[in-house]
Known about the structure:
CATH class of the largest domain: Alpha Beta
Bound molecules: beta-D-glucopyranose
CATH architecture of the largest domain: Alpha-Beta Barrel
Number of domains: 3
Radius of gyration: 26 Å
Number of strands: 27
Largest sheet: 6 strands, mixed
Strand order of the largest sheet: 10-17-16-15-11-14
Amino acid sequence: xxxxxxxxxxxxxxxxxxxxxxxxxxxxxxxxxxxxxxxxxxxxxxxxxxxxxxxxxxxxxxxxxxxxxxxxxxxxxxxxxxxxxxxxxxxxxxxxxxxxxxxxxxxxxxxxxxxxxxxxxxxxxxxxxxxxxxxxxxxxxxxxxxxxxxxxxxxxxxxxxxxxxxxxxxxxxxxxxxxxxxxxxxxxxxxxxxxxxxxxxxxxxxxxxxxxxxxxxxxxxxxxxxxxxxxxxxxxxxxxxxxxxxxxxxxxxxxxxxxxxxxxxxxxxxxxxxxxxxxxxxxxxxxxxxxxxxxxxxxxxxxxxxxxxxxxxxxxxxxxxxxxxxxxxxxxxxxxxxxxxxxxxxxxxxxxxxxxxxxxxxxxxxxxxxxxxxxxxxxxxxxxxxxxxxxxxxxxxxxxxxxxxxxxxxxxxxxxxxxxxxxxxxxxxxxxxxxxxxxxxxxxxxxxxxxxxxxxxxxxxxxxxxxxxxxxxxxxxxxxxxxxxxxxxxxxxxxxxxxxxxxxxxxxxxxxxxxxxxxxxxxxxxxxxxxxxxxxxxxxxxxxxxxxxxxxxxxxxxxxxxxxxxxxxxxxxxxxxxxxxxxxxxxxxxxxxxxxxxxxxxxxxxxxxxxxxxxxxxxxxxxxxxxxxxxxxxxxxxxxxxxxxxxxxxxxxxxxxxxxxxxxxxxxxxxxxxxxxxxxxxxxxxxxxxxxxxxxxxxxxxxxxxxxxxxxxxxxxxxxxxxxxxxxxxxxxxxxxxxxxxxxxxxx
Length: 748
Ligand code: BGC
């Protein structure tokens, strides 16, 4: 559903000092948390489960049911007595104040806290999740999550709706920027650290959208067909790692159907896999409007309906009274919600507003962006630029005089002062609108080349762009492709005639640098003409400084692609996205529980590529991409040597990396495995990685331990992972297509 009522009028952004003043005011006006009662559940030496059981004994049936649903979408709906104590986020579940149980106050927080503008507050926009993932750095992921957790808490929220980890099964998915790439081991490892970071601030962390919501088109209706084995080894493996290692308090089930049932009433996904096989102790909440039933959803394992209460209030109670929902099910839902609140500190550390430090946020955003920018091409060492040698610089395109683009949808963070391309005071942000952050590449470049003449051209007309580029010592073209939740890209090409503009500039100036601001892979008909290409993603609050630092070499780029860039859409497993028929689109605001229960008529999409997501597809099909998974250049060079593979409980892979160039750098070393033929798997899969900092000439010997599961296949008969005996090939190097070290290990 993309329920209009849910989405009307996003955020009028505010100026920073106003927002700080407002925060103080708001804190004074709002009712503060009641003093803690002294019931036995307040004994912090008891486990979260014991505390939940103790408090449940005191609760009335109505208080229990109230924990199972939201009370509308506080951002958009009128203030009701129930959502009055909320912080006007997107979801609110009332607590039990008389027992010291706070409400659960939820905000979207994919790359920063959403809706801060409408609330008169500031929040940091980190670079898009895909940018952070491109650093392959679990510690950056932790910092990313921790900043979000701190800012959520400072704004009075106690639950995050971030943690998106759907795999890039289709690179045209409009939410690719919100996710962590195409590989389950990489994405799962990173999301786990991100969740830990968020939860370090006494905020419930979330992982979403469970599962297989890999296209936005028709997401409320689509029925995804996939074998259990393929699902467990691909998309679900990312969630499995995220849940086991990150221990999020909550899992958000997705809108789509999986093998016949909606994800939010899918017994296999929610109970058999998540709650039983993975032993997830927290609660499952539905994506917004993703609940379609009471009895069926409850039995399948849905614990909390958001943002409203079509099913999990009156209907739930009626079904309970009629014996259609057992009391034990109600108690299990309530227990899971309460134990999560105790485990994440919501009860012991009540939410409390404070003032956000925007400068610290800028610095974190910049550093993460610097480690996630990917240098895709650098012919004749076109980069880094040397300020001393440049007299004229042409900066072209993508509003690079004033800003950088951000990703849309429920992930949208409001820029300070509003949309940078609008006149002052006109910058209110809206759903499905391109929002530009006030971080100016033009100014960042001029600041780093103070003696050069820097000219700007809007990049809307090839002839004008070419004239601007001609004769300049370097032409830097910024090109972008916006993307958002609620849509997929029709294709992977740059819109607004940008391919022609880049070609024209590169023809006019042999020293042309292209900086991409995209969330998705793009095709590049001009690839041979540009001398250097940087993928800067959606670069966040301080993106321009990060790009400036990489362009001028203050920072040596180290990011690597987490998604394959194909040569053309024809090379994808599905050359076209299956679009929904008309009757399977568009729930509207007038929908009733009856309509919701029926759901939109399904349309079928079969993931017959199965486990072959991303590079596994290109490997298996022997197709050469434009830029492969794991690829990224540096201003220095590295040598790999001395591979040793030692079997054991965890196979240990040891090797040496030497920085053979003249600059300090960080190299991401990637470890892949080829399984025995009997496994019938694609040629290789990522099984580990490490990021190593090296001074010029320095060498380090590092070890990566491989989890047995990462070498296993999912055996549908046993309904479990199985490590097949046989010969495994271990491959190590700096890109999925360049793995100089190879060794064998016989397991079992
Ligand atoms: C999105 C979720 C989001 C929710 C609340 C849904 O449309 O799919 O990711 O958390 O809305 O805004």
